[in-house]
Design a protein that fits this description.
- Helix 1 crosses helix 2, helix 3 packs antiparallel against helix 5 and helix 6 packs antiparallel against helix 7.
- The chain contains 7 helices and no strands.
- With about 180 residues, the chain is an all-alpha fold.
- It has one domain.
Amino acid sequence: MSYPPPAPPPPSPPAAAHWTRTALVLAAVLLLAGGWVLLASLGVHLPPLSRHWPLFVLAGGIASILDYALVSRRVGALGRGVFALVVGVDLYLLTLRRVPWSHLRAWGPGLYLAVGLACLAAFAADRKRSPRLLVIGVLGIGLAITFWGWGEVPLGIFWGGLLLLLGGALVAAVVRRGRAG
């Protein structure tokens, strides 16, 4: 009895596809830095870069999202872009001294929010994948809300409802995958 030959491995994306996001992020940062230096050299009064360096993180995030939307459709680029945008805003609040570094409770949950939103964006962009990103995303956002609303949000009701919604979403994902497969 002969067995059919094994299926060939899926083709790997060309090396140029992996360079796209890197090139866009690098281009965004270089354009921002070049514009800043040129304007400062021409005598334009600009605020100190030491207070606005999170612009470079935000520019990288926007470039990653543009890579997803206009070029590659790679889910990872979207997730990294959303993560960079949320972290950039969090860092901007710190550097503009809207939130002091010593108040970890004020800015720290932004990191959970960044992870949560990045995972949810990647899951929403490609729902055929495992619902693992959905679980991580919902839990990250839940942790951010928990830490920001400590003492103000009724945690039993919040987490009970959140976990029920998450369980229902997982059941729906399994049913949808079963119908498709």
